[in-house]
Write a structure and sequence with these properties.
There is one protein chain. The protein is mainly α. Helix content is 43%, strand content 0%. It has one domain. The chain is built from 3 helices and no strands.
């Protein structure tokens, strides 16, 4: 994958939020991009203190 994740060698999902409507998700993401780094770290550590890779628990369906 090209872009941000490749440039910074990111390979773990440590936090996510689920929204019913895409516009709400976009609004939240734009808001969070304005946050200080430490605020984001605090949010992750509140929900996932050991920084587990949450994507490993996902079940994907392959057609």
């Amino acid at each position: 994958m090209e872009g941000f994740t490749k440039n910074y060698n990111l390979d773990k999902l440590v936090y996510f939020e689920i929204y019913q409507y895409i516009n709400d998700a976009i609004k939240r993401e734009k808001n969070m991009k304005k946050w200080k780094r430490q605020w984001k770290i605090n949010l992750i550590e509140k929900e996932n203190p050991k920084w587990h890779d949450l994507s490993k628990d996902w079940k994907f369906l392959i057609d």
